[in-house]
Amino acid sequence: MSTPSDFKCGYVALVGRPNAGKSTLVNAWVGQKVAIVSPKPQTTRTNQLGVLTTDNWQVVFVDAPGLLRARHALDRVLVASAQQALMEADVVLWVADVSRLPAAEDERLAELVRSRLGGRKLLMVLNKADHLRAARVLPNTDAYRALAPDAEWMLVSALRGDNLERVLARIVELLPVGPQLFPEDQVTDKHLRVLAGELVREAALYSLHEEVPHGLAVVVEEYDETDPALVRIEAMVYVDNDRHKGIVIGQGGSMLKVIGSRARKEIEVLVERQVFLGLRVKVRDGWRSDEREVARMGYGDARELRSGEEEF
Ligand code: GDP
Ligand code: MG
Fold first, then answer.
1. N or C: which end of the chain has fewer CB within 10 A?
2. Do residues 77 and 302 touch, judged by C-beta distance below 8 A?
3. Residue to mutate, 14, 27, 29, 37, ligand 1, most ligand atoms under 8 Å from C-beta
4. Domains and CATH numbers, the chain
5. What atom in ligand 1 is closest to the CA of residue 162?
6. Along the chain (312 residues), what's the average pLDDT of each consecutive run of 10 residues?
């Protein structure tokens, strides 16, 4: 990779409450699904990188998991990754759902960002403007702006694409000069096999009721692309207990079929080939509370676990 001397490149961390639209924003900017999206909290479990490159600059978006109170070992990994993203970024984007007023979590986030920001720029991205009634525009934007009075702010809609170009242009202005970090054709640091597993989890999040998804993990056990016309994937869906296993499988396998068919279609778009997707379900009792199991499911590692203790 040869880089012109005035090339700009940097990391942009997206922080904000679960459901604010961080993953939707990154996908919109990158132009491809690099992070899964759903109305359920805890959809994003690891720092997902989304990379956008032009001749003159490269932005590396870090879509961090939501900032949660650490309860399980899994939560601690999530909190540690979010914190790390915040520390290492060149520009910090605070993404908020402006259709709702800020809550206690936003106050905590404001404090955290204030204490970690140093000399870096904070952009407040007030998302879901499409969902904001005219009468709420002033009170809601004022309430968020009060949390970070020095930040620049913009109203956007990730869903409709409103103002996304403007925010991107501002991000690029703020990027430091530096060499390109990723090849221009790479849009994420995740291997296709990891993304395939995430798409299975996304399909399950969409199809299942509230309680099951939190205890759900997907591990791709086989990813075979030797056949140029077909990718063959075998994935294991791990659940917390036998009852959840029954729910995920459904009557005569009906739920697993719905999940599998939705995931297969998404993976086919991603890999641009036909996909065979084999899904199995296994109970791994209490895996979220076991640090070694959390690492085995692909979330952080045992060392990261200790650095994220109960910070928020
Ligand atoms: P994250 O948890 O911050 O990553 O949020 P997601 O990107 O997963 O989005 C959470 C939910 O909000 C999803 O159902 C999205 O479709 C929805 N969403 C995201 N952006 C917008 C937006 O601009 N307008 C509206 N109305 N919904 C949005
Ligand atoms: Mg997300």
1. N
2. no
3. 37
4. 8-174 (3.40.50.300), 192-308 (3.30.300.20)
5. 23
6. 80 89 91 64 64 91 65 59 77 95 89 86 97 94 96 96 96 93 75 84 86 80 87 92 92 95 91 92 80 68 33 28
